[in-house]
Amino acid sequence: AASDDTDNSSDSTSTSDAEVVTWYVEGVDKELISTSSVATFVGSAITVDVVREITEKTAADCGLESPSISFNAVDTEGETFSVKIGAESPDGSGYYLQTSLSDKIYVVGSGYVDELQVEALDFASASMGAFTVPDGADDYTDDSGALAYFDKLTVDSKNFSDTLVVENNPDEELSSYVGYIITSPSKRIAENVDKLFAVYTDGLTVSGAYTFDVSSESLKKFGLNDPDFKMTLEVMGTTLTYKFALQEDGYYAAVNDESKLINKVSADTLSGFIGLELTDFYSSWISLNSIDDISHFKVSAEGTVYDFAIAANEDEDAEDSYVITANGESIDCSSFQN
Fold first, then answer.
1. In the chain, is it the N or the C terminus that has fewer CB atoms within a 10 Å radius of its CB?
2. Of 10, 157, 20, the residue nearest 69 (C-alpha)
3. What is the helix (H) or strand (E) element at residue 43, kind and residue range?
4. Is residue 149 a contact partner of residue 179, using CB atoms and an 8 Å limit?
5. Do residues 223 and 245 lie in contact, with contact meaning Cβ atoms separated by under 8 Å?
6. Using one digit for the tens of pLDDT, what is the confidence trace for 83-101?
7. In contact, 226 and 243? CB cutoff 8 Å
8. Which of 212, 256, 242 is nearest to 29 (CA)?
């Protein structure tokens, strides 16, 4: 395992269970760590391909008495060995290296040394978890038990003039066509909701972490007390809120209610919704009802009210199947339908 020590030294321990060895970072909550990333680091650290052996210089000459990097490792037999990285070789081919297994000094490639330049945050989990479906919410899941429906989704963005509220479509007949409608700031058919909902069903892939500190002071430092984008999903009274705040490096700091670290998320990962305007969630559809089910249709636009009346055409030989009037005057049927 690796630790975030200021002197770049670290202690490594592992437990062996026949074939499986799981690595963690000491002092950090295990659930916050990508064990595969730690395992990759450990494997690279203890696998050294040297460039050449040095025979005419002492450890002091090579900067190994005050190494820039050192680490200890404990093998599965409980034996400890150490590795020290000294100065860069004059020809630029790498850095001096010495292990506790012998007095020999080697030059190792700079790529190996670069891989040792890590801190605990480099091993942070690469994802933000999905919404946990509450007990008794079978009606909200698909056949596989994955979340498929929600009660309410509330969204605030610095691109919005008002809060967006999306809820279940109460019209049982039309809900199979449009599952959700916007109830605030005005009642409309919703679109692009799937891009938000996917965060809750699939979680988010992250690019790293800014800090393991999620105190109020830390959240404020990263702008998460007044985020650029915030959304809250509700299922049977259980809620989960995500917050995103743009950083100077072009990434977004991200947390949810369950976060124990501040994640780093790329703008591309959030591009499906982070830059949208409020109107981008407004569907261009005014109504999905069949014309056979509508007798009146009223539209208000710029202070003018248009009251459309719709009736079946009793003339069986007529070209149009419907007779449509707007404020009492007949209009072309096909124009109305389009």
1. C
2. 10
3. helix 35-45
4. yes
5. yes
6. 999 999 999 999 999 999 9
7. no
8. 212
Distance CA 213, CA 231 (A): 22
Write the CB contacts of 24 (distance below 8 Å, at least 6 apart in sequence).
Answer: 1, 30, 33, 35, 38
Residue 100 contacts residue 71 (beta carbons within 8 Å)? no
Q: What are the two backbone dihedrals, phi and then psi, of residue 283, each rounded to the nearest 5 degrees?
A: -70, 150
Task: With H, G, I as helix, E, B as strand and everything else as coil, classify residue 144.
Answer: coil
Reported as a single tens digit per residue, the pLDDT across 106-151 is 999 999 999 999 999 999 988 888 899 999 999 999 999 899 999 9
Q: What is the CA radius of gyration of the chain?
A: 31
Question: Which residues does residue 128 pair with via DSSP β-bridges, in sequence order?
Answer: 204
Q: Give every CB contact of residue 92 below 8 A, 6+ residues apart in sequence.
A: none
Contacts of 6 (CB under 8 A, 6+ apart): none
Nearest Cα to 62, choosing from 85, 87, 98, 91? 87
Integer Cα distance of 124 and 6 in angstroms: 18
E strand residue ranges, 162-260: 164-168, 180-184, 188-189, 204-205, 208-211, 229-235, 238-246, 252-256
**Cα atoms found within 13 Å of the Cα of residue 165, Cβ hemisphere only:** 10
Spell out a b/e string for 91-109, using b for 16 or more CB atoms within 10 Å of the CB, else e. Answer: eeebbbbbbeeeeebbbbb
Rounded CA separation 153/146 (Å): 17
pTM greater than the 0.70 cutoff: yes
Percent helix, strand, coil in the chain (nearest 5)?
A: 15, 35, 50
Q: Mean pLDDT by 10-residue block, N- to C-terminus, for the chain (338 residues)? A: 39 47 87 90 90 94 95 88 95 95 94 93 88 92 91 97 92 73 92 93 94 96 98 96 97 95 96 94 77 80 87 80 85 73
